[in-house]
């Protein structure tokens, strides 16, 4: 059917540019971006697959699958289900969720936020389902219509057309890559006439679900200026892949502060702060700006010869001296840009900065 709801023999074709922007803007929920680094607690007491035609339980599993694809795991995702539909999970889930939030927020280690979230996941934050208001069955929640687990026996999940046609559970391929029709892909046999008819319906081929979708890219969190391409990028979690190549995430960095020597006789003294890419990452294509160490702007920033680190120089007299033998916490902040995209970075280090003489 066309836009006027009239039947037509012409097949519509998705606009590749619009599809790409839909992914980038999060119009099609991606599993990366913010979802990659916060506790996600999926709980629902609404089960009506077999009563009121609410055949959308698969969407809960689709979200989890998208997170798995984007992040390589779902350690920050928990799913609770319940039957009957009248069982309210809000109160018990809120207790566990609040404990999780408070625990990871209290973790001030230098781990990436995603790692801190996973490390501080409470013991009660496990998959499971409620048989009744008092009986919780702890087991991994899986997408299935078969009675292959306690929870699936109570709450089978039914599929959607694209899944039945071979599409992924994530349901995140807005436009599929095509391949030639192969009779061997089907569980039934075609006559010559049926195969010819299938070819006439799909002259350009059929979906190749084994390949990544057309213009299927990751979400760009907090876009600040789509007109110029300047984006509030999120940190990368892998040193390889399309997101790295297209600078759609910022490389994680560490900070090393060299206090240098105190100034004598009115001579200038400088503190060197080295911003180094985490193992497996490179900074060679990136530029830094607005670099500050404990709020003090850098006098000079330059990339090292091997492309793995930037070296920033700071006026020693403007930085706080350490009290006694105790080291000072130094925090470096700034913005890094590549390929027209931009994001913030932050890193910390402990160093002892003696007072100048």
What series of H and E elements makes up the topology? Answer: HEHEHHEEHHEHEEEHEEEEEEEE
Rg, Cα atoms, Å:
27 Å
Specify the overall morphology: flat
Number of helices: 8
User: Uncertain runs with pLDDT below 50, 5 residues or more?
Assistant: 263-267
How much helicity do the residues have? 10-25%
> Which class best fits the helix and strand makeup?
alpha+beta
Mean pLDDT: 85
What is the number of E strands? 16
Order of strands across the main sheet: 1-2-3-4
Strand content: 15-25%
Largest sheet: 4 strands, mixed
How far do the termini sit from each other?
Answer: 82 Å
Number of domains: 3
Keywords:
3 domains, four-stranded mixed beta sheet, 357 residues, Immunoglobulin-like
Q: Nutshell version of this structure?
A:
By secondary structure, this protein is an alpha+beta fold. It is built from 8 helices and 16 strands.
């Amino acid at each position: 059917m066309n836009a006027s709801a009239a039947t037509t023999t012409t097949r519509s074709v998705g606009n590749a540019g619009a599809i790409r922007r839909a992914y980038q803007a999060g119009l099609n929920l991606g599993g990366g971006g913010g979802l990659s680094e916060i506790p996600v607690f999926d709980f629902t007491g609404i089960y009506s697959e077999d009563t009121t035609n609410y055949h959308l339980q698969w969407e809960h599993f689709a979200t989890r699958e998208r997170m798995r694809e984007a992040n390589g795991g779902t350690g920050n995702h928990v799913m609770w289900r319940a039957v009957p539909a009248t069982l309210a999970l809000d109160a018990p889930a809120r207790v566990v969720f609040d404990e999780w939030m408070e625990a990871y927020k209290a973790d001030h280690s230098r781990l990436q936020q995603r790692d801190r979230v996973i490390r501080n996941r409470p013991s009660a934050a496990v998959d499971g389902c409620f048989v009744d208001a008092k009986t919780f069955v702890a087991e991994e929640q899986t997408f299935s219509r078969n009675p292959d687990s306690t929870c699936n026996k109570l709450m089978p999940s039914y599929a959607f057309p694209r899944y039945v046609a071979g599409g992924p559970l994530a349901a995140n391929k807005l436009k599929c890559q095509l391949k030639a029709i192969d009779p061997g892909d089907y569980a039934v046999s075609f006559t010559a006439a049926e195969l010819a008819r299938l070819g006439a319906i799909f002259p350009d081929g059929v979906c190749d679900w084994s390949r990544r979708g057309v213009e299927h890219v990751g979400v760009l969190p907090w876009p600040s200026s789509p007109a110029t391409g300047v984006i509030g990028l999120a940190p990368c979690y892998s040193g390889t892949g399309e997101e790295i190549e297209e600078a759609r995430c910022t490389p994680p960095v560490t900070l090393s502060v060299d206090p240098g020597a105190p100034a004598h006789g009115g001579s200038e003294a400088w503190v060197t702060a080295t911003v180094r890419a985490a193992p497996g990452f490179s900074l060679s294509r990136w530029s830094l700006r607005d670099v500050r160490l404990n709020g003090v702007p850098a006098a000079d920033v330059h990339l090292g010869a091997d492309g793995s680190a930037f070296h920033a120089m700071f006026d020693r007299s403007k930085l706080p001296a350490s009290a006694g033998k105790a080291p000072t916490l130094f925090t470096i902040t700034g913005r890094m840009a590549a390929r027209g995209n931009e994001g913030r970075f932050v890193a910390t280090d402990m160093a002892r900065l003696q007072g100048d003489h």
